């Protein structure tokens, strides 16, 4: 059998002669080449596999997917309408390349639908790009579930699917603190109502305006507003400026002031101060403001330390009973007041 020389293969000068193939392999390869060339398919000489240059993926044909290569050109699908593309989506298996291209064309045609659904939430703290990705998930679900044989358009079916997917994203992913679903939905209603009333009234709507528009009570409205505050919490370590030495949020949050509680207590005492006899008022002032002992108070008033202790106990008992809301004054205190 005629051998293949290096000159015939590479065009170089004759040299060492290539060894011939065994008889059985040579005949099989020759038969395969003639059949492939007759069908107009170039041949991979090393492996003997037919290659479709238009598709560029010989493994697809080897794996038994000729339908993808025959009708897998994007320009072929671009001329089809939504109904034909949807029928391809429903008829082809999920791993099909033709089905994937049909889904991609439907998503690109309805991209503006997703954008219009995202526009409703443009005032939310969630980035618009993230919401667009969530909307595309809803659009793909609509493409997979819509049956064109039942009538209607894909856009009409997909709009509530996209909106519902965005709402589920806000409900399940964005809340860092558990909030009841009814309050979550009320928060979204308040946002939309605020935008509408601002355009109608030419000002920011008041609570009464929102309550009347939504048909809810003021208490329910305030509960939803409080729930919205936990929608996007801030870290206490977050800086308040761009400078490296900027203060943190925790540095400007007020602490519990013990002096405020003391001031409230003193205001309560002042309301009943006039009910005490003059001498008991003097004893209280010398004891708690003058920091005098009972013996020193008795020496200054000309009474015994025992009498000072008794008057001091009665005065404190009267103020305590008044601050705690007790109506009984006590006969002992009345006797002390008469004696003083």
Summary?
The protein is mainly alpha-helical and 340 residues long.
Q: How would you characterize this protein structure?
A:
The protein has 340 residues and is an all-alpha fold. Helices cover 61% and strands 0% of the residues. It contains 18 helices and no strands. It has helices at residues 6-10, 23-38, 58-62, 66-70, 74-78, 82-91, 97-109, 111-119, 128-145, 154-174, 181-201, 207-214, 218-229, 258-271, 278-288, 294-301, 305-323, 331-339. α11 (181-201) crosses α13. The longest helix is centred in the middle third of the chain and has 21 residues, at 154-174. It starts with 5 loop residues before the first helix and ends with a helix. The relative contact order is 0.04.
Give me the secondary-structure topology.
Blueprint: H1 6-10, H2 23-38, H3 58-62, H4 66-70, H5 74-78, H6 82-91, H7 97-109, H8 111-119, H9 128-145, H10 154-174, H11 181-201, H12 207-214, H13 218-229, H14 258-271, H15 278-288, H16 294-301, H17 305-323, H18 331-339
Helix pairs in contact: 6-7, 8-9, 8-10, 9-10, 11-12, 11-13, 15-17, 16-17, 17-18
Mean pLDDT level: 75
How many angstroms does the end-to-end distance come to? Answer: 143 Å
Residue share in helix: 55-70%
Q: From the alpha carbons, calculate the radius of gyration and give it in angstroms.
A: 44 Å
Keywords:
340 residues, rod-shaped, disordered N terminus
